[in-house]
Write a structure and sequence with these properties.
globular; 4-stranded antiparallel beta sheet; 2 helices; 3-stranded antiparallel beta sheet; alpha+beta
Length: 140
């Protein structure tokens, strides 16, 4: 589950899942859902990309994860659609294979322009009920 939250200057996304792996997987749905508000592209032959991120804690790894997703879209020209997170993933080190759509298969006219992922307001952690949640602010 994910949702957009009102924010004064940018856009804050909040993501929730049962565990760390699920949080990262759901964040990809949040990314593509926000960037392509009209829906992700139709399934076609997709590009596969590896992502590996590290951080001192869950919040830092969370920021690095979102930056890697944005880099795939803005630099590599592939839109992340879903991720297969390795079983050994931890909040300090995560590796994944991300399935992506090639930019040519995406109607970019309907896509949001995300300029950056900010550290400001970024948070990720486990709630009292054991579920994971994370918030991220996107500069749009």
């Amino acid at each position: 589950m994910w949702r957009v939250e009102d924010h004064t200057a940018d856009v804050r996304l909040h993501v929730e899942a049962d565990d760390w792996r699920g949080l990262l997987e759901e964040s990809v749905a949040a990314f593509v859902g926000f960037v392509c508000a009209e829906g992700p592209p139709e399934p076609r032959l997709r590009a596969m990309r590896k992502i590996e991120v590290r951080g001192d804690d869950a919040a830092e790894t969370w920021v690095q994860w979102w930056r890697a997703l944005l880099r795939l879209w803005t630099v590599d020209g592939v839109l992340p659609l879903e991720a297969g997170i390795e079983d050994e993933a931890t909040p300090e080190h995560t590796r994944a294979i991300v399935r992506c759509a090639k930019e040519r298969d995406v109607d970019t006219a309907g896509c949001a322009d995300v300029k950056a992922v900010t550290r400001h307001g970024a948070a990720a952690g486990r709630a009292e009920d054991g579920r994971w949640s994370g918030s991220i602010v996107l500069d749009v």
